[in-house]
Amino acid sequence: MARLTSPSCCSSATDLQAIRKLLGRNSDEERVTDAFRTWLISEGWTPVEPTDRFIDIEATRGGERLIGGVKGTTSEPGIDADTAYGQLLRRMTDVSTGIRYALIIPTASVRVAQRVPAHVRNQLRICLFEVIADGQVRQFDRGVGPEPPTTIEMPGPHDCIRRPPIVSIIGAARQWFRPPGVPV
Q: Is the CB of residue 32 less than 8 Å from the CB of residue 131?
């Protein structure tokens, strides 16, 4: 039986690349997942076994937990991005502020994933990550954090009775949209 040896010019990294090329990938989603998992480790996260069988990737770092949905390049990136957001929303079963959610997508899907505005993703604690073709990861929404949304005081039911409805709506809108510290 012939013994396979690696020439001295080759490294284990090039061997791994050659093996991956020979075996091929089952899907682009696997490429995106592998690159993101590598990036997580480089950022100090520890990938863990997902607590839900439908979660694509889960990781912890200190008191933080990241739950992610991964999508690869497909023929319908808009539908797939919408589906991914819906899947993430269904995974939001814990109200702990130490949990963040992530949508991890290839470059081809960034534009459609950004149809959900950044301030909405921020309120839902969803981070958007792009995995570039060369395996690099770019994080959008760096300001996304585990702080809970601020609550807004609504006028009581008696306020609506004393004033005409349009005034109550305008007063509520002024209260909702005024900058902090500015009187109504």
A: yes
